[in-house]
Amino acid sequence: MKKLRVAFYSFTSCEGCQLTLLECEDRLLDVLGAVEIVRFREASSYEGGEFDADADIAFVEGSISTVHDESAARTVRSRSKKLVAFGACADIGGVNAIKNREGVETARERVYGPAAAWIHSSAARPLSAVVPVDAALHGCPVDKDELIRFIFAAAVGAKLPDPAAPVCFECKLRQTACVFQKGEVCLGPITRGGCKAICPAFGSGCDGCRGLAPDANLLLMRRLLKERGLDGSDLARRVDLFNAAALTEDQRRELIGHA
Amino acid sequence: MVDRVLPKEQVSAFLDYLRRRYRLWAPVAQGGGFVFAEIDHPESIRLDYPTTMLPPKAAFLPPNEILLSIDMESLESAPPPAEDKPIALLGVHPCDLHGLMRLDMAMREEPSDASYVSARRGALIIGLACVHRCRPEAFCDSMETFRGAAGADLYLTPIEDGFWVEVRDGAEESLADAADCFRPPSDRQKREKDDINRQIDLEFSGRRLSLETLADDLEKTYTSSYWAKLADRCFSCGACTAVCPTCVCFDVRDDLAGGCKTADRCRSWDSCLLKDFAAVAGNENFRPKRHQRLRHRMMRQGSYLAKRFNLPAFCVGCGRCPAMCLGKISPLEAFEFSQKGRTVHV
Hints:
Chain A has helices at 16-22, 28-34, 67-79, 88-92, 98-102, 104-112, 144-155, 167-173, 198-201, 218-227, 232-243, 249-256, and strands spanning 4-10, 35-40, 55-61, 80-86, 135-137. Chain A is an alpha/beta fold and 259 residues long. In chain B, helix 6 crosses helix 9 and helix 6 (211-219) crosses helix 11. In chain B, 30% of the residues lie in helices and 21% in strands.
């Protein structure tokens, strides 16, 4: 059987999701046994063109926030049979999209100062805003086990189901004491799981990096957070950490009002 | 039924016996609460625990397990190697004993569940009386599951000298090698144990339901607008089913491992509260709305499974789900709603 040709690319991101694959140390040989990696800049010394390979599956990390990102995403799309949004930035815009709320011009001047005029940047968007996407691996960073399962499934032509359970479900299975009940802010009840509730397990409330769970009860979340003293712009900041570009305007109003 | 006393000074010898012969599971402290766990160090056992995060169900039906491993070249499959010793569950409170009995009914109903039956084979269940209500959300009094003994091989009641032990008929032989640990009870110990049982009856006397008609009453609420209103407080997150001693639904999927050389047939707990639970081919969903899923769980617990297994209710009132639910939804309030205006107070 011919091995699946897999490529890894990155746009506006920290490249931590690619690093997550490299950190699957004891399973890397299994991965190489199952697929052929044709491009993976972060892991190779290849010095040729960056987007010049044909792949069966391209894993694309990062949001689209420059013209270069946008045209490169189109190139990758045209040279890959399947495209996977790889991690929160590509999946939902992620932390890069915080700037969208502040205003792209303001953000550019703050970041680049006098050189702002030299740099092009646009609002940070998920990959799916620019090209059709076949699947997504959620999270900041992606979950190692889910990633490996995804690659092995793809190698035999199968597709992993998208997890539907909110973070709370896995958190209970892990027998973590509820951080919300302890008084922390936690977005676990409305956030898509699949992360094994890793943040609450280490005592920190969920920040929502995997995006909204299907059918999330946003009004209830808002009411509970308000009882916790989190409202208005503070609530907006918390939600916008990962989901500034992920919610529809209706969802946003339900969750944080008009802040 | 034979009555014995396990004196305080014999407890550690009895634990040693259990660990030699069984894989011993018991409550231990974890993260500010308590959990049932396999015991390496007997001194970590906490029989003074109020209740646990997950029910002891997890000992026989783990949240995640591999049912079969399939070799992708030969396509031969085999279950994981069997454990060498059966499980002993120590310190199971009455609600959880009732939960384990219901779990047994569901998993042994033909065709019985091979993995469960294998994990359950030869297990020793040691119950532990509840003298106090574990948490305000518990409603074992309403569900009449606060009294134990049924479902346990041994049932312990704490007394001053140690534990009063009721030994189920037929369970003596599994204790033959531990017979030295037990003493015949004295009259004074008998009086003390009877006193404790009277205290238990007083402590759990807040019955708020008419169990005889619950299954029918609840079904009559099916079309009520009550469910949509209740669902305003529901995240549909599945935390309630995750902590439930009698929820038995699971999902099975095949995961490739070892560079696609093997496929593991994995089973994990599922939840009827989750959006994709009733999703089927053709992009259809039997229960697409949150209130339909919430109602379904309550109906399962209060009516459907009760009728199927000829029980007053499937829910045992352990209080885990209302304590975990951030919307503070309790089956008790749904059950009470169905009996509004004619609830029996005893």
